[in-house]
Structure prediction request, 247 residues.
Amino acid sequence: MKLDHYATLSKLFNYPNDNYKTFVKEAVCALAKEYPEANEELEKFFKLLPATTKEIQELYTRSFEVQAVTSLEIGYVLYGDDYTRGEVLVRLNQEHKNVNNDLGEELSDHLANVLRLIPKMQDKDLRDDLVRLMLAPAIEIMMNEYSVESMEQKDKLYKKQYKTLIASSFPLGLFLHLFKALYIVLDSDFSLIKENRPFEDASFLGFLKHELEVEEGKHSSNSCNTIFNNCGINSSNNSFKGLNKLN
Prediction:
């Protein structure tokens, strides 16, 4: 199974440069034949993109960095700042190193880096575990962060913390089309497991709420149990089933 299209898709999750729209068109062409439903989502995404690179960069920053809708670090999305994420970063760093996958300026669990890793991995079982037990569940969480309720709750938290919200001239929800396209492709290639996940109701919103409370002095910044409880996770059952294979 050829997986080169993940390297093509990875460019869409990097910080945009002047070639960003060209990268989207390349992805559309790459998915057109084998993944028509994903291709439709990419076309919707392309039509909604702002005209200029600067505007796209501002939209990317607002979506993933400053007063973000979600994070692009899959380990953080799944585990927050719990020690488990640290272990995942170490193991992923080793996998990237094994195949000379350049991480650029991002961490090893950044979505773009993980997508570029997939077609380079030689161990099929390890690759499948990475996709099914970490990558796909993280993308599900990222997509859920675009629900109306979640967006409203995050805005309330940001407004409470920063007193004002950064206004966007373009719909933040346009990136949802990008996540949907990726998820459709993953499901087609890997027959995703949609139950029995290694975690429960983790969410970026839950981790965000915890971090803001830490800044306000309500919780200790090194309290792993607090992080998991705020996210609805059983703190006694926070293991990642595939982690041993990443050792």
About this structure: The radius of gyration is 18 Å. Residues 219-247 have pLDDT under 50 and may be disordered.
